[in-house]
Structure prediction request, 403 residues.
Amino acid sequence: METVCLLACTSRKGLYPAAAEFIYKSPLFSAGRNYAETRCNQWFILSAKHGLLSPGDEIAPYNESLHDMDDAQRARWARSVHGQLRSKIALDASVVFLAGVAYRAHLEPLLREEGRDTATPMSSLGIGSQVAWLQKVAKSGTRVAHIDQFYSLLKRLAVAQASPPQVLSVHTTKSVQPKRGVYFFFEQGERRMTSPFDDRVTRIGTHSVSLGSKATLWNRLRTHRGGGNGVGNHRGSIFRLHVGDSIIRRSELQSIFPTWGIGQSASKDVRAGEEEIELEVSGVIGKMPVLWLEVGDEASADSDRTYIERNLIALLAGPHGPIDLPSDGWLGAWSTRQAIRSSGLWNVNHVYEQYDPAVLDILERYVEMAEGTRAPTDLSLAPQGWRLKLTRSGHTGPQIELI
Prediction:
């Protein structure tokens, strides 16, 4: 699928005629241009005076602005731009707006009416935050490429499993066949900002990370999902605990559910008092699509599952924060845990660590096993002594709670 970026013009311009891509001088335009050139197949400039401009179109400086137009004038401008755009882009191309509401309000509905997907990845950010985010993307080229590689491997995994990720609530012990693995949760409405038509992973997890553990992948997913009657146990699932905590805080229910998250076990009366939230948590997690990867080496803290989990969490979050930010209404924004709020993941451990790029090679080998192009193995593939090297380098980060 081709993507087309529409970048808004700015009031700051050069003094002399020039190609449109060079005449606009603001930091926002310069940073947006880099995004358009590196993340999209085509890009154009939305100009109050000229309508739609190709980057190479020669123009003279001007002072017109959409903000000086009334709504009817902006609607006529949008119809004109729409006509220009249709003649320049593929019929199935999707459109990314790096532009304010004045530029989008009438144009975006016209694009959607003809069946195009549209995205506004920075719509929840102020101008200063937009510039900072775009500059961060530009400076993080290697990491962004690794994140792209990670999501490309997940797409291959989904193809190998013959279907897109299905919501957790539909799964059973029959559909989750691998004994051991790593899982990836997505959420409706959570998209990647650097690839805004792709879903964003919001939790990475595994199991059997203690020597001799007999826990299975389905055991872990079922605990997160809750029982068949919808009543789960957040004291057995840190994922459930965090989701419930966010629900309670978002709705200001702390006084009604004061025992949530307290203790490793609870009496029957306490559990009965928490049942309403447990049911809601099951509903939220049950609606999340989940994808898993079989990783079958022996249970231990040095297992490939541990290596993959912690390094992929660090890739998406990391000490400098995520590249693909959570949406403005993401439930995790109400969490009491700073690690969740800042990372955009329902994870606490490893979110501030550095990642080992070699994890992508290991991940690809396991994806190849899922595709049937590599022979399966229950031997570990991760670099020998990887955990000791992390400890010595000081990149392990705070270990706060078991997953």
